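Notes from hallway chat w/ T.B., transcribed later so I don't forget. T.B. wanted the structure written out for a chain they're using in a teaching module, and asked if we could keep both sequence and structure tokens in one place. Agreed to drop them here.
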Amino acid sequence: MGALFIDADACPVKAEAERVATRHGWTMHVVSNGGLRPSRNPLVQTVIVPEGADAADKWIAERCGPGDVVVTADIPLAARCIAAGARVLRHTGEAFTEANIGQQLAMRDLMADLRAANPLGAGGGGKGFTKADRSRFLEALEREIRAAQRAG
């Protein structure tokens, strides 16, 4: 049986992911640098990693594999998880796949270069998280867990 890994520091769908994982009897690893309230659910493992750059990402990437599902918005982490054989979703429900991860990494690098070239630091953050995003995430997570179960 697979496991669900949540890159939790800025994840707005932890509660939704817990409900879906529990319904399927999956262990869910909620990985962060701290500051999260642990769940009382015995299927949810709260993992606090040491402070430091990408410690949570490293923990997840070293443990996920075929049959697992990872939820993250971190594109380099998504690439590592895909390489390990895991299925990967953004919290909006968008899937990272072998077919699109190269383009996602290239776009991330391009945007970082554009932000660095902006001397005034102008530019906005991302768009807000909506109910539609939450709904898409729930549908996508259900689909990915079922696909992982069929493949396993």
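Follow-up for T.B.: The mean pLDDT is 88. Might be a good example for the class.
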